[in-house]
Design goal:
The complex is a heterodimer of chains A (167) and B (170). With 167 residues, chain A is mostly helical. Chain A has eight helices and two strands, in the order H-H-H-E-E-H-H-H-H-H. In chain B, helix 3 packs across helix 4 and helix 8 packs across helix 9. The longest helix of chain B has 27 residues. Chain B is globular, with a radius of gyration of 17 Å. Classes of the chains: A mainly alpha (167), B mainly alpha (170). At the A-B interface, helix 1, helix 3, strand 1, strand 2 and helix 6 of A face helix 1, helix 2, helix 3, helix 6 and helix 9 of B.
Chain lengths: 167, 170
């Protein structure tokens, strides 16, 4: 087997999809060719390192009426910066948390009221489908924009034009 | 996850946990991942006003990864290449900071990849899909998927290897 053929099998091996019939030839070339062996070992190490990147252990996605609520499960991998919303309360951010809830409620009410007046239940479901207390600004923006122009085309414009790079 | 309906919004809901997971792996912070979920939802809804994607999960993965990388670039995380090299020179055990460095390296490497290469990498490593499944989902030839995968891994290796070599040097 030459190195070019080996490279084709190497991709399969890196993807854990090397066919049994190819295994003997693959391992034989691996043992005989130092260049290919080093390449394979460095790429394997890369994949292993990438796989170790911690993801969320568990995340719950729950529907609450028209809303989806996303919460990470309690985990010792979570640091203070990853803490769920209630930790902001314990950390002394009660006023900000209460303000964000108030803004969220007002924005949600305005959106619901506007959309119900427009008589489009689907719009309401879409616009309020995702909410979480930490980011009321998008919902506030949607509510204000919709209040200015409650038509369906206005809603489409709201959705298309909201870009919110955060500072 | 509770009731799933057949509307475009319901389609999104089926993948919400996955979207969050893809974003979290690249960003490492709950609220940043939520921001990405929210952005992706707005884009999904705008897309569905025109045409619902035929392969929703593939579309969502691609947009999520792109958005997470954009967000990382915008936020200008405190970890820059210089800082990475300085920290890697010290003999530190695996910590949250090391994870952040790894995330930064992966995100920086992905910045140089095509959208297809990014999608294949995430689908293979984190979603554990076969090459054939990825080809079907992304509408690519099997050989193209394998080529994308190899190039993406090599780009990551080229980013990570200097740090490993530095760790070896006494």
């Amino acid at each position: 087997m030459n190195c070019e053929d080996f490279e084709m099998l190497m991709t399969d091996a890196l993807g854990d999809e090397l066919a049994e019939g190819d295994r003997a030839g693959f391992e034989s070339h691996l043992a005989a060719c130092e260049t290919c062996r080093r390449e394979y070992e460095s790429l394997t190490r890369t994949i292993d390192a990438t796989r170790t990147l911690a993801g969320p252990r568990r995340v719950s996605v729950q529907r609450d009426g028209q809303r989806l609520v996303i919460q990470p499960a309690e985990s010792d991998e979570l640091t203070a910066s990853h803490a769920p919303v209630h930790s902001a309360v314990r950390n002394g951010s009660l006023l900000r948390f209460a303000a964000s809830i108030l803004v969220a409620f007002t924005a949600g009410y305005a959106v619901h009221a506007g959309l119900m007046l427009a008589g489009d239940a689907r719009q309401e479901q879409q616009i309020t489908q995702i909410e979480h207390a930490a980011s009321p600004s998008v919902r506030g923006s949607l509510a204000l924009a919709h209040a200015r122009n409650p038509s369906r085309s206005g809603l489409a414009k709201c959705l298309a034009t909201i870009t919110r790079p955060r500072p | 996850m509770t009731t799933i309906d057949s509307s475009p919004g319901g389609e999104f809901e089926q993948h919400t946990a996955q979207i969050y997971g893809w974003a979290y792996r690249l960003l490492g912070r709950h609220h940043d991942a939520l921001d990405v979920v929210q952005d992706v939802f707005l884009r999904w809804d705008a897309q569905c006003l025109r045409e619902t994607p035929r392969q929703p999960r593939g579309w969502l993965r691609r947009v999520t990864v792109n958005r997470a990388i954009d967000l990382r670039r915008q936020r200008r995380e405190s970890i820059d290449p210089q800082a990475c090299d300085e920290v890697a020179g010290r003999d530190e055990s695996e910590t949250a900071a090391d994870q952040d460095l790894l995330r930064a390296d992966i995100a920086l490497s992905m910045d140089g990849l095509s959208s297809g290469q990014r999608g294949v990498l995430i689908a293979k490593i984190y979603d554990e899909m076969t090459f054939r499944e990825i080809a079907t989902e992304m509408g690519l030839a099997l050989s193209t998927v394998k080529t994308h995968y190899l190039r993406a891994i090599r780009a990551l290796r080229d980013r990570l290897e200097p740090r490993w070599n530095q760790e070896k040097t006494p």
